[in-house]
């Protein structure tokens, strides 16, 4: 599998960005965080936010979807399983396309946790600079919803300004019919409205060497006991921790797939016949950002649970998921191996970072904690 990481210098990177104001905004945040973190922002669970705070975040997300395509987006991998770049898309779509283009570099490799930590943070920067967001990225504690996922009150806020909306209408391609995102339009893999389709057993029919429990109920993978097992276990074992969290039937994947629709990576009815389902366009779903903030929180909690976990890293740069045998040998990537000095690719949209700069949420480029 071809592997490519861009390593542009800071000066050449700046020339790639369309909009010097946003460049300086992100650079200022980077320099400030790198120099000091005396007053970290606090990321809170969605349900603890006030109605006004929820409305502010939702409004900023929708604002990004109303901004035009950014010509700074420069795909670097060009995998053959994604739609071509659509220059008529929105700025929100551009951020999604980064995830699509980089998919094979950032899942089941050592970049999984560092990339998504960085990705949620630069997305927050965009919400602030381009759409006036004042808060911190919220997270979604899906462990709270695991016991009765479909009927959770999390999916029962239909307020058109501050509500996330509920499940999709199965008679209309699982499009979300209520809440603030009922009119949320997306460009990838084809133009459509946001979709959600509850799928309790998403692993049936998958490769049995990778999905060893095909009849597993997805909500059993992200219970509070599973979160506790991850946070308190794998002491000094980064590879083991990531492997358990990112497993094909683990918490990360199960939340994606139980949601179906966009977060689950299923192709909409408008997609061409060659549409490839998968995690590539899962960032279409606004819940993606709260889901990955929760994934980041589990990592944050694990890092802080034992000194042996703090600031450690291990992983390869190449996906090894062709079959169960090779995956079991290299569950978080094969050689060439990554290091703390390795670069997190940005496809021209944001300033690139090293893994080391995001390994700790209160040093390097970052300045936040979780409640």
TrEMBL record:
PROSITE patterns: TYROSINASE_1. This is Di-copper centre-containing protein. Residues 107-124 form the Tyrosinase copper-binding domain. Transmembrane segments: none annotated. It comes from Lentinula boryana. It holds the Pfam family Tyrosinase. InterPro entries: Di-copper_centre_dom_sf (IPR008922), Tyrosinase/Hemocyanin (IPR050316), Tyrosinase_Cu-bd (IPR002227). Keywords: Copper, Metal-binding.
């Amino acid at each position: 599998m071809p592997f490519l990481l861009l390593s542009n210098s800071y000066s050449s990177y700046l020339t790639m960005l369309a909009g010097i104001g946003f460049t300086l905004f992100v650079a200022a945040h980077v320099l400030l965080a790198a120099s000091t973190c005396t007053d970290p922002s606090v990321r809170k669970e969605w349900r603890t936010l006030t109605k006004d705070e929820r409305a502010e975040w939702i409004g900023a997300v929708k604002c990004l979807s109303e901004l035009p395509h950014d010509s700074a987006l420069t795909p670097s991998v060009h995998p053959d399983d994604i739609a071509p770049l659509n220059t008529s898309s929105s700025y929100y779509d551009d951020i999604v396309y980064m995830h699509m283009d980089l998919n094979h570099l950032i899942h089941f490799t050592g970049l999984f946790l560092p990339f998504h930590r960085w990705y949620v943070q630069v997305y927050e920067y965009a919400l602030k600079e381009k759409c006036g967001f004042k808060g911190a990225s919220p997270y979604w504690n899906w462990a709270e919803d695991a016991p009765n996922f479909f009927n959770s009150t999390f999916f029962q806020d239909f307020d058109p300004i501050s509500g996330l909306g509920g499940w999709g209408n199965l008679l209309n391609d699982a499009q979300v019919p209520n809440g603030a995102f009922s009119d949320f339009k997306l460009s990838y893999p084809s133009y459509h409205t946001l979709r959600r389709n509850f799928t309790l057993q998403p692993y049936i029919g998958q490769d049995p060497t990778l999905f060893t429990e095909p009849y597993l109920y997805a909500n059993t993978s992200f219970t509070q006991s599973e979160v506790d097992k991850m946070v308190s276990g794998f002491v000094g074992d980064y590879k083991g921790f990531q492997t358990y969290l990112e497993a094909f039937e683990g918490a990360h994947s199960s939340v994606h797939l139980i949601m179906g629709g966009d977060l689950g990576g299923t192709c909409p009815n408008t997609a061409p016949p060659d549409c490839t389902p998968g995690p590539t366009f899962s960032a279409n779903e606004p819940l993606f950002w709260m889901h990955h903030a929760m994934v980041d929180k589990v990592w944050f909690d694990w890092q802080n649970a034992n000194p042996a976990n703090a600031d450690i890293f291990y992983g390869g740069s190449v996906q090894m998921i062709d079959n169960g045998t090779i995956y079991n040998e290299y569950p978080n990537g094969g050689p060439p191996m990554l290091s703390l000095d390795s670069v997190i690719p940005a496809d021209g949209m944001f300033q690139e970072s090293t893994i080391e700069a995001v390994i700790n949420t209160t040093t390097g480029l970052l300045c936040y904690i979780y409640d």
